[in-house]
Amino acid sequence: MVESDSKDSNGSVKPSAIQNGSKDIELVTFHDLGLGSSDPEKGGYIKADFEGAIEKTEYGKFHYLLLAVCGFVSTSEEMDVVSMSFILPSAQCDLKLTTHTKGWLNSIIFIGMMAGAYVWGSAADALGRKKVLIVISFMNALCIVASSFSQNFEFFMVFRFLNGAALGGSGPVIWSYFAEFQPKAKRGSMLSFMAAFWTLGNLFVAGLAWLIIPQDIGVYSSHFVYNSWRIFLLICSLPSFVVAVLLFFLPESPKFLLSRGKTEKAMDIFQTIYHINTGNEKSRYPVKHLILDDSFKAYSSMSKLPMGQKIQKMFMAIIDHSKQVFVQPILKFTVISITINFTFHIGYYGLMMWFPELFNRFDEYSRDHPDQMASVCEVTNYVVANGSQIVGACSEKIEDSVFLESLITVAAAIPANVIAVIGIDKLGRKFFLVFSTFTSGICAACMYFVYTKTQNLIVSAVFSGVISCGNAALDCLMTEIFPTNLRATGVAISMVAARFGGIVGNIVIATLLDLYCPAPTFIVAALLIGGGLLCLFLPNTTKKPLS
Predict the structure, then answer these.
(1) Is pLDDT of 39 > 50?
(2) Contact 269, 252 (CB under 8 A)
């Protein structure tokens, strides 16, 4: 429907807004484009900016295929991160681990992710999302394979660091890439849907660990050992190889291409999406002219430069992007994003990575003290003083109940993710984030008052569910508050803060759990609740166009 059909002196229909749900779409005649037709029905062209163009592709098969591949990237990333929590109890004899070195093994991947997030995020803003994702996926897979062959703690640490450096780019880049294919009406629910793939990663890794690690399989010699937990690691690398191949078949982000002035390539991608979603010929895609705003036009001249100057400008762009996120008006968003991600992931990774270890310690205590209740701190003190943590008493034995409890804990996130998918575009990102951080903070404090394995399992499962729900909301919010030309860089810097939170959480818990047990739970509780409230100072991005 056209709001007004007034004609100019030549009899051509003037451009006017079409009421199709996007005020950014206009009708333009062949005459307006210098093509000589004045019939708006036969010769009318729709011109649109990104939001209008992606809406006109309609929503269908392509977007669900994209969700499957990008979700699989998130699944493989989470598998690689969380796999360490299942390896620690099994590898403590092989690698001669103490609670302190376990904390560093949990943390080293986050140190690598901090380094990788900034580099890869900036590279994605300069070179493109798809290319960077393919390189990251192959690098990640190869580093996991190499780490599985490492025979000592030092080499294992090196390859886990490199693994983290690759993973550091995967998070910010895949979220930016996926979001840039989504119309504003669907963006929140689909980003929440993709966050649910993290839960699948947790489930897969817990199931694989239960299936493989307890088995007496592998290769053993006097100089080389390749046992069950190493085979488990090797299998965890397979998803990264698969997604690297699948990404070859997906297009580059059309929003990124528009930001580089590559309108013809962007148009071809819009037409392809339209064809896949509707089954119609590409030529029937109604948008024929893409509108570039001033920020997009600034990049279009770069494509005309020689390769040497392009590379120089790329590095200058990386530096410039880094500066811009710390300048008003973006500075406020950056600081809040950094703070929320830091505090949130102290809790998320600080506790989640230690749940299998805590389950194992409770199991060890209950074997030696059947039908006797004890707090987390009493259990820890016993294991450190008398159990498998003391030098010379190393034990690789892990009961099936430990894996079952871990599986139940991560499975608790499934209903939470379903609720997030359904409600995030109705109740908003900030509602879910505040609810999640407040509730998970209470759960963290309740860990101190746990006295049985069952109580520990219940609190851990509730914590896993509510914090996963908040993780989906946080991913949506962080992806949406930064403008396109700074999105991957802004999200990457936020991810650096998140990884630093993971490092601090793991080291602090590893140090204080054995030395001063009550402290970790209350520290995590305070940081989760305080950090979550900061999101109230961010703008409402629910169902708003990407800037």
Answers:
(1) no
(2) yes
Higher-confidence position of 384 and 271: 271
Which residues fall within 8 angstroms of residue 103, CB to CB, at 6 or more apart? 506, 507, 509, 510, 511
State percent of the chain over pLDDT 70: 83
**Tally of CB atoms within 10 A around 224:** 9
Span 403-456, pLDDT tens digits: 888 888 888 888 887 888 788 778 878 888 888 889 988 988 888 888 888 888
Residue 64 CB neighbour total at 10 angstroms? 12
Task: Please count the other Cβ atoms lying within 10 Å of the Cβ belonging to residue 480.
Answer: 24
User: What is the helix (H) or strand (E) element at residue 137, kind and residue range?
Assistant: helix 129-148
Task: Show the domains of the chain with their CATH numbers.
Answer: 320-546 (1.20.1250.20)
**Is the C-alpha dihedral spanning 238, 239, 242, 247 positive or negative?**
negative
Locate all alpha helices (DSSP H) within 369-452, ordered by sequence: 376-386, 400-411, 413-427, 429-446
First-residue to last-residue Cα distance in the chain: 27
The values of phi and psi at residue 365, to 5°, are -65, -45
128, 256 Cβ separation under 8 angstroms = yes
Q: What would the pLDDT profile of 205-214 be if each residue is shown by its tens digit?
A: 888 988 898 8
- Number of helices (H) and strands (E), helices first, in the chain? 22, 6
pLDDT band at 145 (very low <50, low <70, confident <90, very high): very high
pLDDT confidence band for 351 (50 / 70 / 90): confident
Contact (Cβ atoms closer than 8 angstroms) between residue 75 and residue 204? yes
Q: Is residue 26 within a helix (H) or strand (E), and if so which, with residue range? A: strand 25-28
Among candidates 200, 232, 191, 202, which has minimal Cα distance to 215? 232
C-alpha–C-alpha distance, residues 81 and 214, integer Å:
20
Predicted structure pTM score: 0.69
Determine what percent of the chain falls in helix, strand and coil, rounding each to the nearest 5: 75, 5, 25
515 has pLDDT over 50: yes
CA distance 369 to 364: 9
Please compute, for residue 155, the number of CA atoms within 13 A of its CA located in the half-sphere on the CB side: 11
Q: Is 286 exposed, middle or buried (0-12, 13-18, 19+ CB in 10 A)?
A: middle
Length of the chain equals 547
Query: Distance between CA atoms of 442 and 187, rounded to whole angstroms?
Result: 30
